[in-house]
Amino acid sequence: MTNKKSKYPLIIIGAGPAALTASIYASRYHLDHLVIGESLGGLAFEAHKICNFPTEQEISGVDIVNKMKEHAESLGAFLLLDKVVGVDRKGEIFRVTTRNGKVFLAKALLLAVGTKHRRLGLSNENEFIGRGVSYCATCDAMFYRNKTAAVIGGSDSANTASLYLAEIAKKVYQIYRKNKLRGETAWVGQIVNNKKIEVIYNTEVVGLGGKKKLEKIILSKPYKDQTELMVDGLFIEIGTVPQKDLINKLSLETDERGYVKVGPDQKTSYFGVWAAGDIATASNNFHQVITACSEGAIAAEDIFKFLQKSK
Ligand code: NDP
Questions:
Q1: Cα 118 to the center of its chain, rounded Å
Q2: pLDDT per position as a tens digit, 208-230
Q3: 115 forms bridges with which residues in the sheet?
Q4: Contact 236, 152 (CB under 8 A)
Q5: Residue 66 C-alpha to ligand 1 middle, in angstroms?
Q6: What is the mean pLDDT of residues 24-37?
Q7: Is the confidence at residue 1, as pLDDT, over 60?
Q8: Which protein residue has the closest C-alpha to ligand 1 atom 3?
Q9: What is the CA radius of gyration of the chain?
Q10: Quick one: which of 86, 62, 68 has its CA closest to 11?
């Protein structure tokens, strides 16, 4: 299916759970809209297992996102895979420009572009990306079959990465800067009981070494008398930061961490712009697939009311 139109009441920017749910709700309100996202699913796509989404006892990120996409498309949604690179406003109309040179107009915008992986910030980190350093266990764990991998972090992303790697690798070190893992208790319990995973507490990774590929990591303090740990792969799972481009272009008000401030109706500080999902400060900052969906639904309903009034 191709879209020939360039003008919509609503453009949803993003293609993750918040955006796809907003699209489902918008369709049910008969609200003509376009969904534009750089890639399907956002970070939810990378989740190895999601076990807390009602009706799904266990489902992969890929499967849940594809189900949402199918649902949205079955109701008539058009999803354009392209990156929005420009947004400006003339009078009451927003003009949205994509990387592929397309231009669309809309009366309302929903920003649901999510977050990206936080980098550790080591001087040679970039050199090792794709050569031993990864930010996505679901994507890259299979390269470490019967090898040794390390994971940095102590919350859900790191915990689920360690558990997934333990299904494939020979040995997994999880390096955490504090003394007690946090995140979902169910994952923490599984880690503690997994013989392949060794958690190194109160420690940070301060260096990376290797010739053509990663061979070792340097720890901030000795572990079993060694500050160097020989590993084949390192998974940096230390949280996320908001995708800032469009936030900056629209000069949206953010909190001190850079997340878009929204009200209970998901409205941002910019008239005619809503935000939902991991990029927004809603849902008590609890970034989950279910809260992203809920925020997408709330935004769609409020946008519907706004567009009804402005007719
Ligand atoms: P979080 O922000 O929850 O955790 C980041 C982790 O990385 C923390 O342990 C933090 O340490 C550590 N960290 C941050 N910066 C550094 C640094 N510079 N050096 C070393 N360690 C660092 O991010 P997650 O990606 O784990 O989770 C994000 C959201 O996604 C959460 O809401 C989470 O619940 C959700 N999620 C849920 C999953 C699920 O299965 N339910 C799976 C994956 C994510 P400290 O603890 O000291 O702050």
A1: 11
A2: 999 999 999 999 999 999 999 99
A3: 242
A4: yes
A5: 25
A6: 98
A7: no
A8: 155
A9: 21
A10: 86
Asked whether the predicted pLDDT for residue 53 surpasses 80, the reply is yes
pLDDT band at 142 (very low <50, low <70, confident <90, very high): very high
> d(Cα 253, Cα 42) in Å, to the nearest integer?
22
pLDDT at 3: 67
pLDDT of the residue at 2: 59
Q: How far is the CA of 183 from the centre of ligand 1 (A)?
A: 8
Atom of ligand 1 nearest to the CA of 50: 40
Ligand 1, residue 158: give the atom nearest the CA: 26
304's CB contacts (< 8 A; 6+ apart) are 25, 26, 29, 31
Kindly provide the residue ranges of all beta strands, DSSP E only, lying in the chain, ordered along the sequence: 7-13, 33-37, 79-81, 84-90, 93-98, 103-111, 115-117, 133-134, 148-152, 171-175, 197-200, 205-209, 216-223, 226-230, 233-236, 240-242, 273-275
Per DSSP, 199 falls in state E
Residue 127 burial (CB count, 10 A): 15
CA distances from 88 to 142, 194, 252, 305 (A): 43, 52, 12, 23
Structural contact between residues 248 and 84, judged by C-beta atoms closer than 8 angstroms = no
Q: What is the pLDDT of residue 311?
A: 77
Please list every protein residue whose CB sits less than 6 Å from any atom of ligand 1: 47, 50, 52, 120, 152-158, 160, 177-178, 182-184, 204, 238-240, 286-288
Distances (CA, A) of 290 to 10, 18, 222, 273, 296: 23, 9, 40, 22, 10
Eight-state DSSP code of residue 27:
H
Beta bridge partners of 81: 37
User: What is the pTM assigned to this prediction?
Assistant: 0.92
> Which residues fall within 8 angstroms of residue 279, CB to CB, at 6 or more apart?
14, 111, 112, 113, 114, 115, 242, 243, 247, 259, 260
